[in-house]
Amino acid sequence: MAVCEILSVGTEILLGDILNTNSRFLSRKLAEMGITVHRHTSVGDNPERLAQAVREAFSRSDIVIATGGLGPTPDDITREVCCREFGFELEFSSEQADKIKSYFERKGIAMAENNLRQAYIPKGGTVFENRNGTAPGMGMKKNGKCLVILPGPPYEMAPMFTQCAVPFLEEYRACTIVSHEVRTIGIGESSLAALTADLLEMENPTVAPYCKPGEALLRVSARARDAETAEELAKPVIDEIINRAGEYVYGVDANGIEESVVAALKERGLTLAAAESCTAGYIAKRITDIPGASAVFHCGMVTYSNDIKIKTLGVKKETIDNYGAVSEETAREMAAGVRRVSGADMGISVTGFAGPDADEPGKAPGLIFTALDAENFLICEKLETGRTDREYNRYVAASRALSLVLKYLKRQDVQ
Amino acid sequence: MAVCEILSVGTEILLGDILNTNSRFLSRKLAEMGITVHRHTSVGDNPERLAQAVREAFSRSDIVIATGGLGPTPDDITREVCCREFGFELEFSSEQADKIKSYFERKGIAMAENNLRQAYIPKGGTVFENRNGTAPGMGMKKNGKCLVILPGPPYEMAPMFTQCAVPFLEEYRACTIVSHEVRTIGIGESSLAALTADLLEMENPTVAPYCKPGEALLRVSARARDAETAEELAKPVIDEIINRAGEYVYGVDANGIEESVVAALKERGLTLAAAESCTAGYIAKRITDIPGASAVFHCGMVTYSNDIKIKTLGVKKETIDNYGAVSEETAREMAAGVRRVSGADMGISVTGFAGPDADEPGKAPGLIFTALDAENFLICEKLETGRTDREYNRYVAASRALSLVLKYLKRQDVQ
Q: Which chain A positions have a beta carbon within 8 Å of B300's beta carbon?
């Protein structure tokens, strides 16, 4: 198997001014091609130290991927140093120069003369077009070894890697790995693992449990010569997981429960409203993160105080007096209230103690009630996270309330 | 100046399963001590490759800080390999073993025998107590060089570095750098830079402009022998920035505008309510991210549809028909409406096109109106971000609406 090293160039990384996300992105993509990554290295904008790092990397590995330091200023040295160390000469390309000039023209910005440094490309190398900036990337091959140079900004680097570098590296591909995530809410990681214990022992595909705040997921990764075969290996295992844990599964490769909820409501032409106490807008915010959410979500009420719960949602004063604002009874009346006020098909609600403190003596932060109210239907769930982390508790409470929507829709679909 | 390399150990980093945030954290902290970082290296859980990386790092640098690979399983090799390469012998510490046992007892979890691997410490080294996990860290010094080993999980690593490793590295400290961020909203980065052009030329403290979504900030970094002297150098420059750009400044070292708004309202005993269309809960969510926000924020209305704007906030149908839902007029009536419904001292509102599309022909995503309504007071601001990025537009719109609160309070304070 081909061995690769990833080299990030930039003093700003060594000062801690920026977080190196490129190395992680490249590592993931290379793993999917069956290319082994043995090392990540970051060095500053210093020619000697960069040259040393390039020599070391090639002494150990087949492929070196360098990112960053392709800008127009004199401290951008990656192109010169890496090409020189790998034995490639740079030459001025008038074609590249024209592309850079027209990039600035399109943006309506004056181009500094400096920018033409980015028009130098390696003789005998391959140029990777930059659709999101001015610095082209480049690839070179020599004596079975390979050098790839990519710009530093992630929004330039990532699409260029996928579109240009992956085809350039095709000969090093050992396999294709496809991964899918089966995401669940309402079951713990260890219970999910117990339910799928035999699957976790498989070798291809592999099944591995992971945790995210308030949810557990299983990642199914299949390895084969091509993507189609890998997908065929993965599919029956994903189906089996859904077969066993279906009541908790909210999506495969879903981008959070909010995405699944909006899609499910759209499909059925139903609308939702939310009444939030401790999550205070987090449910509404997450639903409306999804473009087009306006088709299913018209109204949210953030009722942080008891007075506002009573005044805007019609929660009964006696309910709060008798059971407390953080109670199943209050959650129910909030859900019913927001459904009535909004005219939506269903109302969901959350009330709880977000933390760090509990606000009420004898109660713990992380105690949360969520409810869903619909025609002839009401569910309420109690949740105790045992944590004092405000962001965690709020996120998990919002997720749990959203999961009630899918629970309700599943029951409706069965009827 | 002492030169340091940071070595991260863990195959999960090379697979791209986790993002290496430790190196960034350590780089920042070392920069504040005047210790130069020349390289970040990540290697997997492989003894030969780790040993090679340790030897290389010490051949170039005075200090090596290794993180990760201190766990209880056989593939956790950092302790053994690093100590051996640096010439320190490990020995079993019954004191450490007792600490590990009592950690598990406190958590009420059975301890696996494996965990006692974490009780081995270097003979002649310094042990760093782990208050957030079981693996102690360690520091060793020899012939002017220094090895520091820290656990991988960031919530264990970061406090241990600050509490134990910083004092251990004190002799390498060249200086103390203190940094403060003056944060602004409502002025662009280039205008802010123009307003402070002479300050940006200073050498100590340095002043550098940065951009965050919807805001510009100036970072003032002063270098001196000790923190007190550095603070004395920074202070007049910070004061001068506030003097020049005060109307845009919302805080120094503030953790976002929401923190400044909650603090300012608390101080004055005033309350706020929010009516949100395109931000749809983001304002409420951000305000209530701040613990104790319940003292100043009781009520938020997410009015995504026109019907709900009319029904719950009392926006006039004619206003929407004549001017559109995304208009100054609608924003004003929303702010007034939520103040009336909630009984709060002031109401703020947002209506706009979040993107990626504009929903209305001829209108661009990123067109946003925000308003604030209070007794005998009304402001409305129009914003055109020129972007289609939904998250960006929503974040910036929420920030801008929150900034109206500080604007209002400043005028009240003057009167």
A: 280-281, 300-302, 304
Residue with tokens 């302790």: B79
One domain, residues A38 and A97: yes
User: Looking at chain B, how many residues does it have?
Assistant: 415
User: By residue range, what is the domain housing residue B124?
Assistant: 3-172
In a shared domain, residues A269 and A345: yes
**What CATH number is given to the structural domain containing A125?**
3.40.980.10
The candidate with the shortest Cα–Cα distance to A372, out of A223, A288, A261, A266, is A261
Q: Please judge whether B14 and A38 are an interchain contact, meaning their C-beta atoms are less than 8 angstroms apart.
A: yes
Last residue of a domain, one of A252, A268, A287: A252
Whole-number Å distance between alpha carbons of B279 and B353: 9
Alpha-carbon span B219 to B238, nearest angstrom: 9
Flag the least confident range among A355-364, B12-21, B31-40, B133-142: A355-364
**CA A190 to CA A210: how far, in whole Å?**
10
With beta carbons less than 8 A apart as the criterion, state whether B7 and B67 touch: yes
- The predicted model scores a pTM of 0.86
In one-letter notation, the amino acid at residue A144 is G
Tell me, what's the ipTM?
0.85
Dihedral sign from CA coordinates of B288, B292, B293, B299: positive
* Euclidean distance between CA atoms B130 and B121, whole angstroms: 13
What is chain A's mean pLDDT, rounded? 95
- What CATH number is given to the structural domain containing B234? 3.30.70.2860
Phi, psi of A365 (to 5 degrees): -60, 145
Q: What residues contact residue A341 under an 8 Å CB cut-off, 6+ apart?
A: A273, A299, A301, A312, A313, A314, B311, B312
Give the Cα separation of A92 and A121 in Å (integer).
Answer: 6
The verdict on B62 and B9 lying in the same domain is yes
B107 with B209, same domain? no
**Residue of A31, A42, A341 lying closest to B312 (CB–CB):** A341
Q: How far is A92 from chain B (nearest CA, A)?
A: 31
Residues B101 and B155: their CA atoms lie apart, in Å, by: 20
The residue among A331, A346, A345 whose CA lies nearest residue A276 is: A331
Taking a C-beta distance cutoff of 8 angstroms, is the pair A338, A313 a contact?
Answer: yes
Q: Which residue, among A27, A29, A288, A309, would best test binding to B if mutated, counting the most B CBs under 10 Å from its CB?
A: A288
Write the pLDDT tens digit of every residue in B265-276. Answer: 999 999 999 999
Range B370-375 average pLDDT? 98
- Is A87 a residue whose pLDDT tops 80? yes
Are A224 and A269 found together in one domain?
A: no
Report pLDDT digits (tens) over A356-376: 987 778 888 999 999 999 999
The reply to whether A376 and A352 lie within a common domain is yes
- What is the chain A residue with the closest CA to B45? A38
What Cα–Cα distance (Å) separates residue B25 from each residue in A163, B6, B35, B83, B411?
A: 32, 11, 14, 23, 40
Report helix angle A306-313 to B328-342, nearest 10: 110
CA A136 from chain center: how many Å?
27
Q: Tell me: do A293 and A407 sit in the same domain.
A: yes
Cβ of A20 within 8 Å of Cβ of B20? The answer is: yes
Identity of the residue numbered A178:
V
- Separation CA B49–CA B151 (nearest Å): 19
